[in-house]
Specification:
InterPro entries: DoxX. Its main location: membrane. Keywords: Membrane, Transmembrane, Transmembrane helix. This is DoxX family protein. The chain is mostly helical. The chain has one domain. It has helices at about 1-20, 20-25, 35-50, 60-70, 75-80, 95-115. Helix 1 (about 1-20) packs antiparallel against helix 3 (about 35-50) and helix 5 (about 75-80) packs antiparallel against helix 6 (about 95-115).
Length: about 130
């Protein structure tokens, strides 16, 4: 699960850095310096992905990626509610509905695969 999440965030971070303009339309109007925020989110995704693979950084990376997923949720909502076209992403509710519903699972996944939480597979105490 950790490697899959790292690959997911590495790819997403690369997209944010390679094509920040594609993500500008989904930025909430209240976000300051939207282009810079998109670039910083790409950097955060890449650093989080790398951190998941380094044992001494794993927990911090998991917490950071969970917080990141909370912070980008307004952009995901805007993307869905305003039916904004982002090249390479579907535009239907078959995409947006599950994406919005699964956001809490993405947060859990970051915390779980970083070892920050162990639910539902509780670790046995020695």
């Amino acid at each position: 699960m950790r490697w899959l999440m790292a690959a997911f965030y590495l790819a997403a971070g690369g997209l944010h850095l390679r094509s920040p303009e594609a993500f500008l339309p989904i930025m909430p109007d209240w976000a300051p310096a939207p282009r810079e925020v998109v670039i910083l989110t790409g950097v955060a995704e890449i650093l989080g992905a790398a951190g998941l693979l380094v044992p001494s950084l794993r927990k911090a990376a998991g917490i950071g990626l969970a917080l990141y997923a909370v912070c980008v949720f307004p952009a995901n909502i805007k993307h869905a509610m305003e039916a904004i076209v982002v090249p390479g992403l579907p535009t239907s509710w078959w995409y947006h509905g599950p994406r919005l519903v699964l956001q809490p699972i993405l947060i859990w996944w970051a915390l779980f695969c970083s070892g920050t939480i162990d639910w539902p597979a509780r670790r046995r105490q020695p």
